Amino acid sequence: MRILITGGFGFVGGRLAVHLVQAGHQIVLGSRKAIIPPDWLPYAEVAQMEWEDGYALECICRGVDVVIHAAGMNAQECATDPLAALAFNGVATARLVEAAIRAGVLRFIYISTAHVYASPLEGSITEETCPRNLHPYATSHLAGEQAVLHASQREQMHGIVVRLSNAFGAPMHKAVNCWMLLVNDLCRQAVQTHKLVLQTSGLQHRDFVRLSAVCHVTEYLTVGNIETIQTGIVNVGAGSSQSVFAMTKLIQQRCVKVLGFEPVLQRVQSGADERHSTLTYRTNNLTALGINFNGLDNSAEIDTLLRFCQSTFPPIKSPDA
Questions:
Q1: Please, what sign has the CA dihedral across residues 284, 287, 291, 293?
Q2: How many CB atoms neighbour CB 155 within 10 A?
Q3: Would you say 248 and 199 are in contact if contact means Cβ atoms under 8 Å apart?
Q4: Closest to 202 measured CA to CA, from 255, 168, 246, 250
């Protein structure tokens, strides 16, 4: 199967590309800048994306069976420039959808975000929960989602929206901008400073999902029978949350196993009246498809991420050293 992955040099896109090549698929990496295959995926095709040119996008989509649209502006970029966020996450997605339809693409998977629902995420969230987050990151992704779902409703292609929770894991190369993600940042901290510093008490809950699980789920959505998904929306997460402190403790334990030392854990002490709501990010549509995985078995992904950080980031010497 020939699969176009936009944002193919990015955090999610890069890992998806390698996973799908290993599964035997032909991959086209879509990128705004790159024009040659990367050394970590030398046999892939590379297509330079002209996001404002519908005809150029159609040409790239010709001969493609599935588009996985993983390109997008992150939350910080969206907050800084809301108009650009809507232009890219929303309008450019709609333009790619129309180009894919004209090119005869059969399936279109849009990597969106769980944060369309609310900020912070709390309580029980399903695919039926009404999105209420008004941050430009959320609203621009919702605009992109609507373009995909509308095309699917018109039966012009099979559109799937993946609302991804807090994914973590090693990127395919060091230039990927993924170090604002909590788990990734903590692993880099551990390697560079031998410390794990939290700016909060860590009692807040999040749904952490390892990138290896995201790849397996997306592969199924790419090639499997997904006719039973009624809304076209699929929550992808661990399905059960844990506190930030619990995740940090796990990273501390894996450092002992992988790196041979225990980083010092520093956090803000919680007050007597501090309360945090629990979170259950339900993956009902995955369950209906028969897709189940141990969402909290995160040790192997953290180990790989720690090794990546060790090989990529030099230690930072303390001023007192």
A1: positive
A2: 7
A3: no
A4: 246
Q: Give per-residue pLDDT as tens, 243-294.
A: 999 999 999 999 999 999 999 999 988 777 777 778 999 999 999 888 877 6
Task: Kindly report, residue by residue over 5-44, the tens digit of the pLDDT.
Answer: 999 999 999 999 999 999 999 999 999 987 899 999 999 9
Residue 275 CB neighbours (<10 A): 7
Whether 160 and 228 have beta carbons less than 8 Å apart is answered as no
Q: Domains plus CATH for the chain?
A: 2-167+208-236 (3.40.50.720)
> CA–CA separation, 122 vs 116, rounded Å?
12
Contacts of 19 (CB under 8 A, 6+ apart): 215, 216, 218, 219
222-247 pLDDT, tens per residue? 998 887 677 899 999 998 889 999 99
Beta bridge partners of 281: 125
Q: Are 67 and 105 in contact (CB under 8 A)?
A: yes
List pLDDT tens digits, range 115-129. 999 999 999 999 999
Burial label for 128, CB within 10 Å (0-12, 13-18, 19+), is exposed
